[in-house]
Amino acid sequence: MNTPSPRTLCAPTFLVIWLCGWVSQSEAQISIVEAPKSAGDEKPTMEDSWILERDDQTGITVRTMELTLQPKAEPRPALKYRLIPDDFDMRDGNAYVYYLKANGFFEQSLARERLTQIHKGASAQAEKEGKQYHQVPPAVWRSTPPQELPLDEVKEYLRLTSFQPQFIREAAQRDRFDADRNLHEVYDLIGYLLPEIHSMRELARTQSLRCRVALAEGRIEDAIAITGQQFALARHMGHDDFLVSNLVGIAIAGIGWNDALYLVQHPETPNLYWALASMPKPLVDLRHSLAVERQFLYLQLKELREVDETPRPVGYWQDFLGRLLGQFGCLASEFGFGSLHEAPELERTKLVAFVAAAYPGAKEYLIDECNLPRDQVEAYPTAQVVALAAVRFYDQCRDDTFKWTHLPYWQAQASGRRVDDAMRAASKKYGLCTAPAMLLLPAIRAACTAEARCDQTVALLQTVEAIRMYGAAHDGKLPRSLDELPVPAPVEPFTGKPIDYECFGSRAVLSGHSLPGLRYRLVLRLAKQSG
């Protein structure tokens, strides 16, 4: 039912780095798309009304969409429209259960089987025609502008999931999302599978089709409601315990944002500036999952909690390694200790070899950086030296990394890069004892970048609505600068300043700050007002 993906979603923190690339572009933020070029062919490519151009000097892909907008004043009353319910209107309950129902986990096996058949048939068709999966129906509909959809075919396809909207509406109104994961008691947290989170992405894709059909049929109220439900689903993903879930939420927000760019171009769409302004900030909040990530190493390798400077005999540390090895689970393969198919004796041999190889650097780290007396360190058993150095290095780098997550991204990004550089330099100097930090921590800044990227897209959309508001009060003209707007221009999360804006008479360009490898540009024109 899902398009092919490199691996099934699971909890590993190091998977976050891959996912941060995965959410950076479209399905309005789901897969990294590089415009294919042949020799001498510099023409940009098109994808779902986006023009894709790659700057070979900077490596940045610029995604440009042209929007023709109808000037619209703010609605009366101003908060008539909401994309996400406010606290008073939120209903007590767990959205997680409703999303499971919407995904057909309960009593919808026939629909799921039929959808699986359709997607398998699409894969076979793509292979037969020499195309990629996303180039044939139904996947190609996800990147088709509303006015170009084969409506009868799409609506027939959507009938297979006609049970979904009622559950999604209920979920969007719920105040929490709780999967009851009980992380403190989980064995092998690093291997925790998240099939239901993976399916949320497919749910959002189907919702995108519903939104586009609604726009094609002029059902604006329905399109607004669906867009809000997409943002609510994204917000709920921010309640889960894992960064991976949060990043899926950011990708879902991108799908909703892409559809919203079509929504605001419809002549009958009311101004949504205040609806966007009233959404939670950040939309997908990483704070909870970051708190989990800060303890991730000790949730996985619980034996590390007892590592300290207390001298203990060699026998204790031999037993310690055995207990520790039993907790590595899927993490063992990342360190090279073993796999599911290796004998425990071989895994232990590899662990002992790892400890021996890590010892020289670990000893120097404890002496140079932790200021422990050389004779004290040299009196410790080898395993204690390595374990102590690993947790000391991890704790230091962990907090140096996480402290910057408590500041706005534009204030923290430069310092965060310096922390990463210092960690890499120390790892090169002290070797294998730094492995836990180097495996788990680089993902944190990447995840924060994805959070800022999501907020940037909302800021771009809100700025578009502020410009529509200005046009309604100024005979359909564009503002010369964002300082002329009747409402505040949203802040660009990468700079702490308003979005870049240039006016060229009858058209204007909004440009998001260049992200790692990506920049969004919206070329705006205001339609002439009737009458």
Secondary structure: elements and pairs:
Blueprint: H1 15-22, E1 45-47, E2 50-55, E3 60-69, E4 91-94, H2 95-102, H3 109-129, H4 151-158, H5 164-172, E5 174-176, H6 195-216, H7 220-237, H8 243-263, H9 273-277, H10 287-294, H11 296-300, H12 314-328, H13 331-335, H14 344-368, H15 374-379, H16 382-402, H17 409-430, H18 435-440, H19 442-473, E6 491-492, E7 497-498, E8 500-503, E9 508-511, E10 518-526
Description of the structure:
With 531 residues, the protein is of the alpha+beta class. The chain folds into two domains: 15-292 and 448-526, no CATH class; 303-440, no CATH class. It is built from 19 helices and ten strands. It has helices spanning 15-22, 95-102, 109-129, 151-158, 164-172, 195-216, 220-237, 243-263, 273-277, 287-294, 296-300, 314-328, 331-335, 344-368, 374-379, 382-402, 409-430, 435-440, 442-473, and strands at residues 45-47, 50-55, 60-69, 91-94, 174-176, 491-492, 497-498, 500-503, 508-511, 518-526. The chain has a six-stranded mixed beta sheet, covered by helices on one side. Strands 4-5 form a two-stranded parallel ribbon. α1 (15-22) runs parallel beside α8 (243-263), α5 (164-172) packs across α7 and α6 (195-216) packs antiparallel against α7. The longest helix is centred in the last third of the chain and has 32 residues, at 442-473. The protein is globular. Residues 1-7 and 25-41 have low confidence and may be disordered.
